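the two lines:
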Amino acid sequence: MKAYLGVDVGSVSTDIALIDEDGEVIDSVYLRTQGQPIKAVQEGMKQIGERIGKNVTICGAGTTGSGRQLAGLIVGADIIKNEITAHAVAATHIVPDVQTILEIGGQDSKIIILRKGIVTDFAMNTVCAAGTGSFLDQQAYRLDIPIEEFGDIALKSTTAVRIAGRCTVFAESDMIHKQQLGYSIADIINGLCEALVRNYLNNIGKGKEILEPILFQGGVAANKGIKAAFERALGKKVIVPKYHGVMGAIGSALLAKEAVEKKGSTDFKGFEVSEMKFETNGFDCDGCANMCEVVEFIQSGIVLARWGDKCNKWTNSIYDKGNTLKRA
Amino acid sequence: MRLTYPHMGNLGIILKALFEGLGGDVIVPPPITERTLSLGVQYSPEFACLPLKINVGNFIEALEMGADTILMLGGVGPCRFGYYGQVQREILKDLGYNPKMVIVEPPQGRFKDFLRDLASLFPGLTVGKVVDAVKLAWEKMAYLDQMERALLVFRAHEAYRGAVTNKYNEYRDYIDESKDPKEVKALGLKVIEEMRSLTVPPVEEPLRIAVVGEIYFLIEPFPSQDIFKELNELGVEVDKTEYISDYVLSNIFPWKLNRIKKEARPYLNRVIGGHAVNTIGNTREFADKGYDGIIQIFPFTCTPEIVAQGILSRMSKDLDIPIMSLSYDENTGQVGYQTRIEAFVDLLLRRREMGSAHI
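prediction for all of em together
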């Protein structure tokens, strides 16, 4: 069976999805990046590699997410694409007439507006991570509630509690204040979900026309409290796709399929990459007054890529032959 | 007197030609690096915008090199910039430097007074010296602008990564060294041809994006992590709304702005400070010229541009053109910006494929 691999390396999670030729998900892995993208990708590749049957051949690989360049080098990606495009591709594959995608991840949140299957507008949170998964994580930890149960607890709320939503510091002090007044945990968590949604719609959704079908994806989509709060605020139905947590990876696999069809072969290195030795090494170039921080990416002692220089002296040093360049 | 001034794109080269021609001893601050940024951030008020901080970094680095006089532009009107020179003087004083700080108010049509202010810095000036210096600086400004305009188009199609940029940088240095206006012109025309020769014709009609926004960000590439290069390297031809000559001319002759103000009028009918009115007017102009998309760039906390950002979302609908706004602060992480820029370019490409009439 032919299959395509998609890797999404985000700030918080690293996801891998394997799809077949029809774009159906065969298998997926969801891991915590924990600040070590190389290790996370290798671990994910190892898990997927062990699970798939011998009759599966990987015909293409794609990467996305904030760690996409690094992941692309590790797995040998046929395409390296930003996560906005990847999420949109995955969503239109699952619900072809989708018009709005709400996506909340670990450190960023975005809204993507589509019309007739193409992206017409998008926005991402700027500057501050208020209202993203990391903050929910942190609050769950503070309240000693597993993040997986967060949403269910919110649904038990009976009284509305107002929590400030535009800044996590404000939100946290409001939550503590309400908690000391004696409100129930369920009400406070529900208040937080509503605050997060309010902040999302006012900040990222500002001025956007949110039309159905609406897909809610990203790690936070698992949280039923947030989904319910979105439905209340919008007065519309919000769909959480089955593979909401790995949509970026699915989109990236779909893009890889498209890319391989165009170029005819794959650069995928195989699941052995989980055993190879990858390192990064940084140095300050002293070639001019800019003193760029150059980073080298090394696979088993061989420098695969360099980046970070303004003049391309180091970037080009890898691709000298024929000056062919690999970039998203 | 050892004179210095803040960096702003190629303005440093032009000012150097002018002031050296007037008989000044010029110390050009080192190029803006992370050190400049760190120094600026460390010693500036936290709530100030990035241009002030980079200026402070430039000043400190130039003072370290022995400069003793700083030339800074003042300003009038509701942007904080008008007060930056004063604030910077106080910061430097607190740090124990005691430079002579000359804050020149923009001429706003009173070019004679402006020249008189400047002339006080250079004793023993003759008319002939002034004419020669202005001529050389003017020629440098004209050709550096033309070169940059060409760079932003040709780099989108360079034969290999860095080819056009490196040629541009090489000739920019030659122009910096040149003392002869005729040679400057010859170099300027030559490099445009050389850059052209380093390109390969694009397979498909390239995307064209116009960059609008705050003036310092349009002229100096450092704070936006060189968004112009970033776009070019994705194969996009770029134009920006303000080059140094536009900036200089509109400061000398305020009526130059009238066209832009007229363009902006349906959306914003008064000057609200900074370059908000330019951002609005230019966006309308570029949309009419058939650009595929517009990107607005500005420093985080810039009030005029934030007001403009709000207006742009309405204009995007009215004019049927995608517009993205990006604000920058001292963060040097590129991934977040790259993601947005790439996604924006993808959006424009798909939009073109589908034909915008169907959306």
